[in-house]
Amino acid sequence: MYTIPPKKMVTINILNILKKYSDIEHRMTQQDIVEKLKSDYNMDVDRKTIKRNLMDLIDLEPRIDYTEISRKGDKGNGTSICTDWYIEQDFTDSELRLLIDSLLFSRNIPHKQCKELIDKLVSLSNVHFKAKVKHICNLPDNQPRNKELFYTIDVLDEAISQNKKVAFIYNSYGPDKQLHPKREAEFIINPYQMVATNGRYYLICNYDKYDTLANYRIDRITKIRILDEKRKPISKLADGELNLPKHMAEHVYMFAGESIRAKFKAKNYLIDQIVDWFGTEVNIKPIDEKDEECMIEVVVNKEAFFCWAMQYSIHIEVMEPVDMRERISKAVRELNEKYNG
Fold first, then answer.
1. Using one digit for the tens of pLDDT, what is the confidence trace for 273-308?
2. Is 263 a domain residue?
3. Angle (CA) 300 302 304, round 5°
């Protein structure tokens, strides 16, 4: 048999009702709260008790707000009533939707875990938001998944916090669509930062043999473990620091290796894409009075730029460096022979 909660639970239940049913666009009267207490908690409470508990809650929860209306006339005697109660949610609907969409378009997170995370995000809002997103579902589970992903992230986070080296097996996919070690020996690296780009998680780190930064796909890492040895200070590397915005702008595909200063012509309609890929630090100069073409200069990873230039080859012409222009020209000739030979 249902046991009616004690009166001291009234305050807690009212707070739960405001969290579940209210926001700035969905306000509640004291009578609304009375009815929800009855339907959700089987509690019979009068409106005076409701008001007293609401006023107590305001001192404890600053996100609660209401509208005060003056009562005039003989019966009002200059008093006022408080109505339109609501609580400001921790996340706005648009913020929650943005977080959910980032999960939907992630290429790393396994299908089951993605659904569980979305359910947790939805639970942070009220019934009105739940109604809006009830038809949301994530993308078909047709991507290979590494079940160790979240564990790997946790271990890396701890290692970075403790300035420790890590060891792991680095893998690649075979024809069977399963992960296989690139080599039998472990990779031992100095971890500095985890980043997300192009729907993937990457580890920015250093391999002891070199004095440059490297990037590893976190979803390709398995059997990770923290070592007792302290990691190499980033100040010992060639750059001496990690300038994250600069690093991300230069490594558009997260390839490791040297960066170059590239110069290329581009159609003006491509500027949106160029800024999306390289950021606002790119140097853009108009070429002709018709404003149809521009000259772009950007510092970018060499291998990444080759891939990017091939992707947009119809719309751009690489001018410098000369060896990159020659490399692209050779690739185009090989493509022509492949498709027309």
1. 888 788 878 888 888 767 688 899 999 888 889 999
2. yes
3. 75
